[in-house]
C-alpha cells in the first residue's frame, strides 16, 4: 500500500508491538519485522505492559533536562524572579504536564520535586541551605503547585468523559 502512494518503508528500522495473544495475522506479513516491547508515539510511550509508569518517568526526566539547560539563566541575578516564573509557565510546566489528564497520581512527588528544583534555582537557593519549600514558594509568589493544576485538569477531563455517549471508548474504559 505504501508503494502505491510512492512512499518507502525501511523494513530494517520498522518495529511493531505485539499486544495480547501470540497469534500472527498472515495477511500482515510481519515475520520480517522486529518485535518491540514499547515504542514512542506522539510523545507517549506505548507499552504491552499497559502502565504509564515509563511514560511519566520520561516526562519528569525531560523536565529535569530542561532545567539543566536553563541552569545558568536560573542562577543569574540579572533576571527577575517574575521573568523566571514566566519561563517556568512557558517552557517547563507544559513539559511536566503533557498528557497529565490520564496519569496515575503516583508521579505527584516527582513532579513536585522538579518544580521545587526550578523554584530553588530561580531564588538562587541551594538545597544545602535547607530553606523550607513554603518559604521558596512565598519568595516566588507561587500560590498553586503543578500537581494541583494536574489534579484540576484530571477532574475537567473526567467531567468531559462523564458527559460522553455510553458507546465512546473513554467512557467505556472508565466504567470498566
From TrEMBL:
Q: What is this protein called?
A: Endonuclease-reverse transcriptase
Taxonomic path: Eukaryota, Metazoa, Ecdysozoa, Arthropoda, Hexapoda
Amino acid at each position: 500500500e505504501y508503494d502505491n502512494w510512492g512512499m518507502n518503508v525501511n523494513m530494517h528500522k520498522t518495529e511493531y508491538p505485539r499486544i495480547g495473544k501470540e497469534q500472527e495475522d498472515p495477511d500482515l506479513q510481519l515475520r520480517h519485522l522486529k518485535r518491540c516491547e514499547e515504542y514512542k508515539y506522539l510523545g507517549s510511550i506505548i507499552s504491552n505492559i499497559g502502565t504509564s509508569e515509563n511514560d511519566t518517568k520520561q516526562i519528569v526526566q525531560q523536565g529535569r533536562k530542561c532545567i539543566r539547560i536553563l541552569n545558568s539563566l536560573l542562577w543569574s541575578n540579572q533576571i527577575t524572579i517574575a521573568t523566571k516564573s514566566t519561563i517556568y509557565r512557558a517552557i517547563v510546566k507544559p513539559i511536566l504536564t503533557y498528557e497529565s489528564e490520564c496519569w496515575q497520581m503516583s508521579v505527584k512527588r516527582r513532579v513536585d520535586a522538579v518544580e521545587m528544583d526550578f523554584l530553588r534555582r530561580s531564588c538562587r537557593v541551594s538545597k544545602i541551605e535547607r530553606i523550607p519549600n513554603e518559604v521558596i514558594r512565598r519568595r516566588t509568589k507561587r500560590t498553586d503547585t503543578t500537581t494541583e493544576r494536574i489534579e484540576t485538569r484530571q477532574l475537567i477531563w473526567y467531567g468531559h468523559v462523564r458527559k460522553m455517549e455510553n458507546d465512546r471508548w473513554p467512557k467505556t474504559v472508565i466504567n470498566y
